[in-house]
Amino acid sequence: MSGFALPLVRFSVSQHRTIIGHCYSELPNEACGLLLGPAVGGDDLHDGEPTGAIADVVTTRNEAASARLYAIHGQDYGTARKAARESGNRIVGCFHSHTHTDAYPSPTDVEAAIHNPNWLYAIVSLRAETPMLHVFRMQSGNIAECQVVLEAR
Known about the structure:
Layout: E1 5-12, H1 13-25, E2 32-37, E3 39-40, E4 49-50, E5 56-60, H2 74-87, E6 90-98, H3 107-112, E7 120-125, E8 132-139, E9 142-151
């Protein structure tokens, strides 16, 4: 795994389809959602270090309703938080789409990551014919890509 940041991020094929489908369904705006899974340490539902296993994907509304920005709707965040609590997981990250650019964090994405430095940030580019999903860690302004695998589970 040389060259990639930890953790190895594991999505099911179904979760990947959910993310990509949601990104297309929200065009022309950016889509967004939350990633639930186990985390080590911390004392809150969104603190701790993600293990990389994604237990659930929660699609959310983009409160910004924009093709260039995303903001996870507060009510949807609350619903996801409750689902994480009930399943014994935590919110370990989020996903959003880039409708016209590559799947790489924008300066706005990096700035927003300050609020949740332990999260995994999945970005889907819809720029080309085939959507591209990449996952990043963004801590203290540093960007590092995580390796992603799709599992048949």
